Amino acid sequence: DTEVTQTPKHLVMGMTNKKSLKCEQHMGHRAMYWYKQKAKKPPELMFVYSYEKLSINESVPSRFSPECPNSSLLNLHLHALQPEDSALYLCASRRGTGPYTEAFFGQGTRLTVV
Amino acid sequence: DAKTTQPNSMESNEEEPVHLPCNHSTISGTDYIHWYRQLPSQGPEYVIHGLTSNVNNRMASLAIAEDRKSSTLILHRATLRDAAVYYCILNAYSGNTPLVFGKGTRLSVIA
Q1: Of the given ranges (A7-11, A84-88, A92-96, B35-39), which has the lowest mean pLDDT?
Q2: Nearest-neighbour CA in chain B from A10: distance (Å)
Q3: A4 interaction partners in chain B (CB closer than 8 Å)
Q4: Span B69-90, mean pLDDT?
């Protein structure tokens, strides 16, 4: 199994809603990542988890709250988002934290904030 | 992170080889060179990576200049399925080093 599974695939939420994005991998990878991608732009790094601990937060607003409950699962909790937060949210994982391994990406959750 | 420079776009004919260039003149000695591609409406996909020597896999070849200041991704026979944005990324050997994406090259393949 070399997949990173993200759910849901599409999400529409109001600005007062609370929702969560889920990312799962069963490859035993110990590094997991959240990226945000706006249309026709490259993915932008948001958060990095190493061995279930948050190691990098790229100055992301607090309305995005990541969580890593175990080594296979990564969540992104969303609250009070703005329309400009509409984007494709990508999850990725890697076997370790070094640069000599490949990253596996999920297909993303396309989020629309109304 | 050291910076990479890629052409914004390239075009290729189907069934011909494609050479995608990447300049990284500020690369450090322990930076790995990674290539990923992103097909329309999909997440990025790993293509290949290397440190100093040229690398081959089932998808592509990576040619790294002797001074490591540039590299070239080679698709041996482009197909319509290879139309994508190709990202060249330097990944530092320092703690947890996430992939940081630049603008990439949009490759169009003409039938």
Answers
A1: A92-96
A2: 12
A3: 43
A4: 97
